[in-house]
Amino acid sequence: MKRIHLLFAIFIILILFVGLTNVSAVDSSKWKIVSIEGENFKIPPEYEGGELDNDSYYDKNSKLYIRSYKTDYHLLYRFGEDYTSKYLEDVKMDKIESHDVLMFLSCFEGKYSLDIYFMCGNSTYYISQEGDELNENVKEIIRTSPKQNLTSQEFYAEFYKLQMRYAKYLDDIEWVSNDLQQFENQKNLERQAQNDNMYWYLFGYYSNNY
User: Fold this and answer.
1) How far, in Å, CA of 41 to CA of 96, rounded?
2) How many independent structural domains does the chain possess?
3) 133: phi then psi, degrees, rounded to nearest 5
4) What CA–CA distance (Å, rounded) separates 58 from 47?
5) Most-buried pick from 32, 42, 77, 132 (CB within 10 A)?
6) Distances in Å between the alpha carbon of 182 and those of 82, 174, 178, 189, 195?
Protein backbone atom coordinates (compact mmCIF):
# COMPACT_ATOMS: atom_id res chain seq x y z
CA MET A 1 0.00 0.00 0.00
CA LYS A 2 2.80 2.40 0.88
CA ARG A 3 4.45 1.63 -2.45
CA ILE A 4 1.23 2.50 -4.32
CA HIS A 5 0.97 5.80 -2.44
CA LEU A 6 4.59 6.56 -3.29
CA LEU A 7 4.13 5.80 -6.98
CA PHE A 8 1.12 8.07 -7.26
CA ALA A 9 2.82 10.79 -5.26
CA ILE A 10 5.77 10.69 -7.66
CA PHE A 11 3.39 10.77 -10.65
CA ILE A 12 1.59 13.82 -9.27
CA ILE A 13 4.87 15.62 -8.54
CA LEU A 14 5.96 15.00 -12.14
CA ILE A 15 2.72 16.53 -13.38
CA LEU A 16 3.03 19.53 -11.07
CA PHE A 17 6.66 20.41 -11.59
CA VAL A 18 7.55 18.96 -14.99
CA GLY A 19 4.21 19.08 -16.83
CA LEU A 20 3.09 17.32 -19.97
CA THR A 21 3.76 18.72 -23.43
CA ASN A 22 0.67 19.08 -25.59
CA VAL A 23 1.14 19.96 -29.24
CA SER A 24 -2.12 20.45 -31.08
CA ALA A 25 -2.58 18.52 -34.31
CA VAL A 26 -5.99 20.08 -34.88
CA ASP A 27 -6.71 23.19 -36.93
CA SER A 28 -9.44 25.06 -35.07
CA SER A 29 -9.02 28.37 -36.89
CA LYS A 30 -12.44 28.11 -38.57
CA TRP A 31 -14.40 26.66 -35.67
CA LYS A 32 -17.40 28.60 -34.43
CA ILE A 33 -17.20 30.30 -31.05
CA VAL A 34 -19.79 30.14 -28.27
CA SER A 35 -19.78 32.14 -25.06
CA ILE A 36 -20.53 30.42 -21.76
CA GLU A 37 -20.56 32.62 -18.67
CA GLY A 38 -18.53 35.24 -20.52
CA GLU A 39 -15.75 32.87 -21.64
CA ASN A 40 -15.32 31.92 -25.31
CA PHE A 41 -15.05 28.31 -26.44
CA LYS A 42 -14.31 27.00 -29.93
CA ILE A 43 -16.79 24.33 -31.02
CA PRO A 44 -15.74 21.70 -33.63
CA PRO A 45 -18.07 21.12 -36.61
CA GLU A 46 -19.46 17.79 -35.34
CA TYR A 47 -20.69 19.51 -32.18
CA GLU A 48 -22.15 22.64 -33.77
CA GLY A 49 -25.83 23.54 -33.47
CA GLY A 50 -26.21 22.60 -29.83
CA GLU A 51 -28.46 24.24 -27.27
CA LEU A 52 -26.77 27.30 -25.81
CA ASP A 53 -27.51 29.02 -22.54
CA ASN A 54 -24.96 31.80 -22.21
CA ASP A 55 -25.41 31.85 -18.47
CA SER A 56 -24.43 28.25 -17.86
CA TYR A 57 -24.12 25.59 -20.56
CA TYR A 58 -23.79 24.32 -24.15
CA ASP A 59 -25.36 20.96 -25.03
CA LYS A 60 -25.13 18.98 -28.28
CA ASN A 61 -27.57 16.10 -27.80
CA SER A 62 -25.58 14.94 -24.75
CA LYS A 63 -22.67 14.01 -27.05
CA LEU A 64 -20.84 17.10 -25.85
CA TYR A 65 -21.90 19.10 -22.82
CA ILE A 66 -19.99 22.13 -21.51
CA ARG A 67 -21.08 23.81 -18.29
CA SER A 68 -19.84 26.65 -16.13
CA TYR A 69 -19.74 26.19 -12.36
CA LYS A 70 -19.28 29.62 -10.84
CA THR A 71 -21.05 28.74 -7.60
CA ASP A 72 -19.53 26.31 -5.10
CA TYR A 73 -22.95 24.87 -4.26
CA HIS A 74 -23.61 23.37 -7.70
CA LEU A 75 -19.99 22.35 -8.28
CA LEU A 76 -19.87 20.52 -4.95
CA TYR A 77 -22.73 18.19 -5.82
CA ARG A 78 -21.72 17.67 -9.46
CA PHE A 79 -18.21 16.73 -8.38
CA GLY A 80 -19.42 14.66 -5.43
CA GLU A 81 -21.74 12.63 -7.62
CA ASP A 82 -18.91 11.91 -10.05
CA TYR A 83 -16.34 10.62 -7.57
CA THR A 84 -18.85 8.53 -5.58
CA SER A 85 -20.56 7.06 -8.65
CA LYS A 86 -20.79 3.26 -8.67
CA TYR A 87 -20.10 3.42 -12.41
CA LEU A 88 -16.74 5.12 -11.94
CA GLU A 89 -13.88 3.05 -13.38
CA ASP A 90 -10.86 5.33 -13.40
CA VAL A 91 -9.55 8.81 -12.60
CA LYS A 92 -7.19 10.46 -15.05
CA MET A 93 -5.05 13.58 -15.00
CA ASP A 94 -3.64 15.58 -17.87
CA LYS A 95 -1.98 18.89 -18.63
CA ILE A 96 -3.24 20.64 -21.74
CA GLU A 97 -1.09 23.73 -22.24
CA SER A 98 -2.16 26.17 -19.49
CA HIS A 99 -4.89 23.88 -18.14
CA ASP A 100 -4.77 21.14 -15.56
CA VAL A 101 -7.45 18.58 -16.35
CA LEU A 102 -9.11 16.09 -14.00
CA MET A 103 -11.20 13.35 -15.64
CA PHE A 104 -13.58 10.69 -14.31
CA LEU A 105 -14.10 7.66 -16.57
CA SER A 106 -17.45 5.91 -16.11
CA CYS A 107 -19.18 3.01 -17.82
CA PHE A 108 -22.96 2.54 -17.81
CA GLU A 109 -24.57 -0.33 -19.71
CA GLY A 110 -21.43 -0.78 -21.78
CA LYS A 111 -21.16 2.89 -22.78
CA TYR A 112 -18.14 4.89 -21.64
CA SER A 113 -18.12 8.59 -20.85
CA LEU A 114 -15.71 11.13 -19.43
CA ASP A 115 -16.57 13.86 -16.92
CA ILE A 116 -13.86 16.49 -17.30
CA TYR A 117 -13.00 19.36 -14.95
CA PHE A 118 -10.72 22.30 -15.82
CA MET A 119 -10.56 26.02 -15.12
CA CYS A 120 -10.72 29.25 -17.10
CA GLY A 121 -9.45 32.11 -15.01
CA ASN A 122 -10.76 31.34 -11.52
CA SER A 123 -13.93 29.60 -12.72
CA THR A 124 -14.44 25.87 -13.01
CA TYR A 125 -15.78 24.38 -16.23
CA TYR A 126 -17.06 20.88 -16.87
CA ILE A 127 -17.23 18.88 -20.10
CA SER A 128 -19.05 15.61 -20.56
CA GLN A 129 -17.84 13.58 -23.54
CA GLU A 130 -18.76 10.18 -24.95
CA GLY A 131 -16.00 7.56 -25.13
CA ASP A 132 -13.20 6.30 -22.89
CA GLU A 133 -10.46 8.64 -24.13
CA LEU A 134 -10.29 12.40 -24.37
CA ASN A 135 -10.68 13.02 -28.10
CA GLU A 136 -8.49 15.46 -29.98
CA ASN A 137 -11.26 17.96 -30.68
CA VAL A 138 -12.25 18.16 -27.02
CA LYS A 139 -8.58 18.62 -26.16
CA GLU A 140 -8.57 21.54 -28.60
CA ILE A 141 -11.65 23.06 -26.93
CA ILE A 142 -9.77 23.04 -23.63
CA ARG A 143 -6.42 24.10 -25.14
CA THR A 144 -7.91 27.20 -26.81
CA SER A 145 -10.06 28.24 -23.84
CA PRO A 146 -8.92 31.06 -21.50
CA LYS A 147 -6.05 29.88 -19.31
CA GLN A 148 -6.44 29.06 -15.63
CA ASN A 149 -5.15 31.46 -12.99
CA LEU A 150 -4.23 28.79 -10.44
CA THR A 151 -1.00 26.83 -10.27
CA SER A 152 -1.25 23.06 -10.70
CA GLN A 153 -0.84 22.55 -6.98
CA GLU A 154 -3.60 25.05 -6.22
CA PHE A 155 -5.86 23.45 -8.84
CA TYR A 156 -5.68 19.96 -7.32
CA ALA A 157 -5.90 21.37 -3.80
CA GLU A 158 -9.26 22.95 -4.69
CA PHE A 159 -10.64 19.57 -5.73
CA TYR A 160 -9.27 17.92 -2.61
CA LYS A 161 -11.15 20.52 -0.57
CA LEU A 162 -14.33 19.70 -2.51
CA GLN A 163 -13.83 16.03 -1.70
CA MET A 164 -13.56 16.82 2.00
CA ARG A 165 -16.64 19.06 1.91
CA TYR A 166 -18.70 16.39 0.17
CA ALA A 167 -17.58 13.75 2.66
CA LYS A 168 -18.79 16.04 5.45
CA TYR A 169 -22.06 16.51 3.58
CA LEU A 170 -22.56 12.73 3.48
CA ASP A 171 -21.95 12.52 7.21
CA ASP A 172 -24.33 15.40 7.95
CA ILE A 173 -27.17 13.74 6.06
CA GLU A 174 -27.20 10.94 8.62
CA TRP A 175 -28.62 13.23 11.29
CA VAL A 176 -31.64 14.27 9.25
CA SER A 177 -32.34 11.04 7.38
CA ASN A 178 -35.73 9.46 8.09
CA ASP A 179 -34.29 6.05 7.39
CA LEU A 180 -30.85 5.75 8.94
CA GLN A 181 -30.31 2.18 7.82
CA GLN A 182 -31.09 3.03 4.20
CA PHE A 183 -28.73 5.98 4.40
CA GLU A 184 -25.98 3.84 5.92
CA ASN A 185 -26.33 1.32 3.11
CA GLN A 186 -26.08 4.07 0.50
CA LYS A 187 -23.16 5.74 2.22
CA ASN A 188 -21.29 2.44 2.44
CA LEU A 189 -21.80 1.90 -1.29
CA GLU A 190 -20.48 5.38 -2.04
CA ARG A 191 -17.45 4.94 0.17
CA GLN A 192 -16.74 1.56 -1.35
CA ALA A 193 -16.79 3.18 -4.77
CA GLN A 194 -14.25 5.69 -3.51
CA ASN A 195 -11.99 3.00 -2.08
CA ASP A 196 -12.16 0.93 -5.25
CA ASN A 197 -10.71 3.69 -7.40
CA MET A 198 -7.36 5.42 -7.54
CA TYR A 199 -9.07 8.68 -6.64
CA TRP A 200 -8.15 8.24 -3.00
CA TYR A 201 -4.50 7.67 -3.93
CA LEU A 202 -4.56 10.88 -5.97
CA PHE A 203 -5.96 13.04 -3.21
CA GLY A 204 -4.24 11.13 -0.43
CA TYR A 205 -1.10 12.93 -1.50
CA TYR A 206 -2.73 16.30 -1.05
CA SER A 207 -4.20 15.38 2.31
CA ASN A 208 -0.64 15.29 3.63
CA ASN A 209 0.18 18.67 2.19
CA TYR A 210 -2.90 20.84 2.93
Assistant:
1) 15
2) 1
3) -135, 145
4) 10
5) 42
6) 21, 10, 9, 11, 20
